[in-house]
Specification:
The protein has eleven helices and 15 strands. By secondary structure, it is of the alpha/beta class. The strands form four sheets. A five-stranded parallel sheet has the order 8-7-9-10-11. Helix 8 packs parallel to helix 10. The longest helix has 38 residues.
């Protein structure tokens, strides 16, 4: 078997990711993190992909190293490396303005692909409504990912769906049609009191008095043993309310942590497998978003960006919610929730939905990808995400002079070009020296 034949066999095997981590985590009722979720990336330098557009939104490709400055925690860094990645785009016939190429034709199985696109559907978070819209939009544009020698795959974060790499558009469409919401780590709506991951973080980590009071009120509303909500926290009810609220918050926090750990583990696994493949490689995350509001999850996100940049994998994302509303639905409103409690929970809900965008936007910005959101035209979103930036600048600086304290460092990139629009990585975690047990 020649080299091209060997790559196809290896590729077909490594693309089929087992949902082992999902099944194992579902069995962990206590919600404790397992070592299998850890994303290890050795970092002694920081790579910062930068996409620059002009006032009209066109990609800028004539910038030089001297045109860039990169700051870490507002401190100017000395660049130790600089490169420009030029990506040649092709469009299917009728794609709109670009150079047209014939639609996908028969290609030898041993032919090396010039482009690989993996559509990752976040079935752990997609609602039935969002998935239905995304399913229809995706099915009509999958052929765009299969021009020339390109290959694509449809996979899901739960591991339930995985086509492996293929040039068969019908196989991809059939896989999209089979997608179903899994919702393995959603809070039980019948819990008393019913506390979300976002509110649990406010209670347990931030000790927010408004969140604690709201949870107490929810407990009063749902527990028939308390005749009057005003008695919560008074007399004999004090310990009962505090214990119930604390227990519910701890359970919601553990479930939320487990949810984001599994999600990031899935993304990392696909990035690792794509790193071994030829051609341009793009991972398109289709998701309504999720929360990475604790240090461990933000750290995992940063490590995925490191992994993707080092591997030359672009991550783009599509917010499947489209133009969403922050109004609480009937199913989200707790019994007897009204007045001040209703306003408090509406505020929580609004903040939670906005924060859910952050992981998608930061993964895209940090790897040179595109984040499509705030639009109901998901078809246009998919069409745009199957393309990649024409130019990506990669800035590099060393961490030799950075204190290895594991702290998060915010990044800012400046470009000496008036009117430029800059898309770049937002930050990174400095490495931390591991203590050796004696």
């Amino acid at each position: 078997m020649d080299r091209s034949g060997r790559w196809y066999t290896v590729f077909a095997l490594c693309c089929l990711v087992s949902p082992v981590w999902v099944q194992a985590s579902a069995q962990q009722a206590n919600g404790q993190a397992d070592s299998q979720y850890k994303i290890e990336v050795q970092v002694n330098r920081v790579l910062v992909p930068v996409v620059v557009r002009d006032k009209e939104g066109h990609f800028v490709g004539d910038l030089k190293r001297s045109d860039f400055e990169v700051f870490s925690n507002n401190k100017l860094q000395e660049m130790t490396g600089f490169s420009v990645q030029r990506r040649v785009e092709t469009e299917i016939s009728g794609g709109g303005g670009g150079k047209s190429v014939p639609p996908q034709q028969a290609v030898s199985a041993d032919t090396l692909p010039d482009r690989i696109t993996v559509f990752l559907f976040d079935d752990l978070h997609l609602s039935p409504e969002d998935l239905a819209h995304a399913r229809v939009a995706a099915a009509t544009v999958l052929a765009r990912a299969l021009t020339g020698t390109a290959m694509a795959a449809v996979v899901s974060t739960s591991g339930r769906v995985n086509t492996g790499l293929t040039r068969d558009v019908k196989k991809l469409q059939d896989a999209v049609a089979k997608l179903q919401p899994e919702g393995l780590y959603q809070v039980d709506g019948m819990e008393c009191p019913n506390i979300s991951y976002y509110e649990a973080d406010l209670i347990e980590n931030k000790h927010d008095p408004v969140a604690v009071q709201d949870a107490d009120q929810k407990f009063a509303n749902c527990d028939p043993a308390i005749a009057q909500p005003a008695l919560v926290g008074v007399g004999s009810n004090s310990n009962t309310a505090a214990n119930q609220v604390d227990s519910a918050a701890i359970r919601a926090l553990a479930l939320g942590r487990q949810d984001v750990q599994v999600t990031y583990a899935a993304i990392a696994q696909f990035v690792k497998r794509m790193a071994m493949l030829p051609g341009q490689r793009t991972l398109i995350l289709v998701s309504p978003g999720f929360l990475d509001i604790e240090r461990e999850s933000v750290d995992a996100e940063s490590r995925i960006i490191d992994l993707a940049v080092q591997s030359g994998v672009i991550i783009s994302a599509l917010d499947a919610r489209g133009l969403y509303t922050t109004i609480l639905t009937a199913s989200q409103r707790a019994p007897l929730l009204s007045g001040k409690g209703l306003l408090t929970n509406l505020d929580f809900h609004r903040s939670e939905m906005k924060l859910a965008e952050n992981p998608m936007e930061e993964l895209a910005d940090g790897t040179g990808g595109t984040f499509f959101h705030n639009s109901n035209d998901l078809g246009a979103g998919f069409r745009g995400l199957t393309e990649v930036p024409e130019y990506v600048y990669v800035l590099e600086f060393s961490l030799d002079k950075t204190k290895p304290d594991g702290a998060y460092h915010r990044l800012k990139v400046k470009v000496d070009r008036k009117g430029s629009q800059i898309q770049a990585r937002r930050g990174y975690f400095a490495p931390k020296v591991k203590k050796v047990k004696k």
